[in-house]
Design a protein that fits this description.
Blueprint: H1 12-35, H2 39-55, H3 57-73, H4 78-84, H5 88-103, E1 111-115, E2 122-129, E3 132-137, H6 142-153, E4 157-161, H7 167-183, E5 191-193, H8 200-206, E6 215-219, H9 222-231, E7 244-248, H10 254-266, E8 275-281, H11 282-298, E9 302-305, H12 307-310, E10 317-318, H13 321-324, E11 332-338, H14 341-351, E12 356-360, H15 364-373, E13 378-381, E14 401-402, E15 410-411, E16 418-425
Parallel strand pairs: 3-4, 3-6, 4-5, 7-8, 7-12, 8-11, 9-10, 9-11, 12-13
Antiparallel strand pairs: 1-2, 2-16, 14-15
Helix pairs in contact: 1-8, 2-5, 2-6, 2-7, 3-7, 5-6, 6-7, 10-11
Length: 432
């Protein structure tokens, strides 16, 4: 009697793994086609994405409303709800960002340097796509569109994995993106999205999908970023919290200091560019801090202050050590009186996350010292930290603000999603 061994039925886990590996292979194939498609084709595709998204606005907003209803029922925090929410104005902003990305110069093939050494070789350094990106993000459905357009602008295929809380919104946006790609004759596999809420999909992406992924970009809270950095088997471009400071120097114009401090905190409290700590020189604190505090509290901001600051703003709560290192993403601001530039820079070095730092001053020497010594991806003088945004930098949009030092730092736009190669032309030279 011959025994027949039956093949075990595939488990859900093995099926997901197979699906994710297939997604990676399709992305790799699409990346090769996209890199050779030419700037005009990529521009046409991004414009097509914008047009399709505008045309599908009702479907996208309806999907987002359903996501918001679920999030509200589950008690999602207000800051996260704000990040999740789309309305006509915000969606129009997403469409506008795509149109801006379509209008920026295509970075692929740009020659960034060229020289001829003594051996007579003609050597050029030329921008090239990275290949396949994977982006894991939370809450913000606009990232689906921004990330896709920037990836295409830089000649990269991309695999998107948004949070389960905004899956309907992301899928609706993705349909528009695919419509734009195909209208330009590009493969729909250029921009793929994970359609399952199963968190095991993230684990599959972290493996690199059998070498298909070249760069992994997490965009979300500390727990997500730390997991990705700890477990990923591919290169990671990190984005940590925005523990950002506004430092009011003794030479600051009082009206400017008040305007910048309020805007940096309160323009939109849920973005990573929001200020979380105000530092103010004790030389001007007695007069200026109560006025800044009144502006902030009048705008609905809760203040948590050190003893010196509380003496000037008695309504403030007492700050503890955790407050200095917290990204609130709420109308809460930590306030500290510092004894000059040295103490301000020491505080930034100890508690800052390397995201964005700002000084308000009229003393040019103080400004230049702060800009040189504050260690962050973005440093500003006499401007709100809320300008920490790729769109405001003229990038059309951004995938995030990198707090890493390699390979990109600060706003990550299309140019930051490229690498380079050396193109060497000779005339028969051989090396002795």
């Amino acid at each position: 009697m011959t025994m027949t061994l039956e093949t075990p039925a595939p488990t859900a886990e093995s099926s997901l793994e197979a699906d994710m590996l297939a997604m990676g292979r399709r992305a790799r194939a699409a990346s090769r086609t996209l890199a050779l498609a030419g700037a005009d084709a990529r521009t046409k595709a991004i414009k097509g994405m914008a047009s399709a998204l505008r045309g599908r606005s009702k479907e996208v907003l309806a999907a987002n409303a359903a996501d918001l209803d679920d999030a509200r029922a589950k008690g999602m925090a207000d800051a996260m709800m704000d990040r999740l929410a789309l309305d006509e104005k915000r969606l129009a902003g997403v469409v506008g960002a795509l149109e801006s990305i379509a209008a920026i110069p295509d970075p692929v093939g740009v020659e960034t340097a060229r020289w001829t050494p003594e051996n007579g070789l003609d050597i050029a350094r030329v921008r090239t796509p990275l290949g396949v990106l994977a982006i894991i993000y939370e809450s913000r459905p606009n990232v689906t569109a921004d990330a896709a357009a920037l990836a295409v602008r830089a000649g990269n295929a991309v695999i998107l994995r948004g949070g389960s809380e905004c899956l309907r919104s992301n899928l609706a946006i993705h349909e528009a993106l695919v419509e734009g790609l195909t209208s330009a004759g590009l493969s729909p596999d250029t921009v793929q999205i994970v359609t399952t809420r199963d968190r095991a999909a993230v684990g599959q992406i972290l493996t690199g999908l059998d070498g298909s992924i070249d760069l992994l970009i997490p965009r979300g809270g500390r727990s997500l970023v730390e997991r990705v950095k700890n477990e990923a088997r591919v290169a990671v471009l990190g984005h940590l919290e925005g523990v950002n400071h506004v430092y009011v120097h003794a030479s600051a114009d009082p009206d400017m200091a008040r305007a910048v401090a309020v805007n940096a905190k309160m323009r939109r409290v849920s973005v990573c560019g929001a200020a979380e700590t105000l530092l103010i020189d004790k030389a001007v604190a007695d007069d200026l801090l109560p006025r800044i505090a009144a502006d902030l509290t009048g705008a609905g901001c809760e203040l948590r202050a050190d003893p010196a600051a509380r003496a000037l703003i008695p309504g403030a709560a007492a700050a503890n050590d955790d407050d200095w290192a917290t990204e609130y993403l709420k109308p809460i601001l930590a306030v500290k009186v510092v004894d000059g530039m040295d103490e301000a820079l020491d505080h930034v070095a100890r508690y800052g996350s390397g995201h964005t730092e700002s000084i308000v001053a009229s003393d040019e020497a103080a400004i230049e010292r702060f800009l040189a010594e504050a260690d962050a991806g973005i440093v500003l003088a006499n401007a709100s930290t809320q300008f920490a945004d790729g769109g405001e930098f003229g990038f059309g949009g951004e995938i995030g603000i990198s707090t890493d030092r390699l390979h990109a730092r600060g706003p990550v736009g299309a140019e930051q999603l490229t690498s380079f190669k050396y193109v060497v032309r000779g005339k028969g030279q051989t090396r002795p």
